[in-house]
Amino acid sequence: MKPIHVGLLGIGTVGGGTWTVLKRNQEVITRRAGRPIRIVKVADRNLDLARKVTQGEVAVTDDAFSIVRDPAIDIVVELIGGTDVARTLVLEAIAHGKHVVTANKALLAVHGNEIFAAAQQKGVMVAFEAAVAGGIPIIKALREGLTANRIEWIAGIINGTTNFILTEMREKGLEFGAVLQEAQRLGYAEADPTFDVEGIDAAHKLTIMAAIAFGIPMQFDKAYTEGISGLAGDDIRYAEELGYRVKLLGITKHTEKGVELRVHPTLIPEKRLIANVNGAMNAVLVKGDAVGATLYYGAGAGAEPTASAVVADLVDVTRMHTADPHHRVPHLAFQPDQLADLPILPMEEVRTAYYLRLRAKDQPGVLAEVTRILADLDISIDAMMQKEPQDDETEANIIILTHITREKNINQAIARIEALPTLSGKVTRIRMEELGK
Asked: Among the options 41, 105, 205, 253, which is catalytic?
């Protein structure tokens, strides 16, 4: 049978991995897809790199538009990253009737609604398994494997850089800055780590998962995002003493009032499997009404793990290449005209439990003032721990765990507590999730 012709845009880490995996596993991939899948043209600004990786086996060019407009290309694989040029190239490929495979989470989170609408109108597919959690097949699980379920919530460790940093902080007792430098030295963190450590990368991925889980449009601009750069080693140690681990989680929940969409450091009971996902690994916990909680674990980045997802998409598109567009799996799991207009809840309306750490003068009556403020705002205390002052210090660390309350109540409480003359500095607040049911 005639091979499927693929044009590859970008042959860096993931592009090189895609070339390698597709070539190495060509025989088994052909048997699974039903026909050969061949990369016939590669575009990259670094022509020397492209020629080195492909060893002169295919045509290489620095003009990506020549690929998306080439009538001999069936599928365009976009691995160049970014949102501006990538958006133009993807829309151009769609306009020329080509299916698209992409690993670009930022592109989809920001421009996905436009891209999917264009693909629907043109009758082509956009596949994006590699855009979330690298080699973990979480998109397929949400879109197909769990299609019988009402998804209730998703909680994921979906950024390997931050998980590596938090693991090192916990295991070695180091502060954020020192571990970030080590992560950069080892190649886990970029020279500019902002997208990772401030939670933006995770928010892109969470936006995509929420859209598939709940049948809503992409709404990245409404995601609450808080990173790990402000975390102190003390809080990670105190959390462990209380039986918790700190992880940067992407959390989305379907509630009666709307959809929660939030990324932030989170205390999780150490007995949960996801709390024990360490290093640069990823894990996604999905709760469905019929199946219960299911956990998906694996490498969230890297050349071949991500290439695994890219090639899986190529096989899927190849299988469905000649199928009637109306009989294909919808991009966001739900039929395009059946997306729900569910509101994204503002963060102040989110309900969860909290870890609070405050530094207070070591004198009578301080705790009474703090607990009175919490009680006035209907915030119930679950546990409390005081760390005695060291040597000649006159202030003690007080750690309070609350029961579930509304974010706006805790905001008011923190403001009042910080105004007390017996308190110094800011109150540290970390949200808590049980993730058990």
From this structure: 205
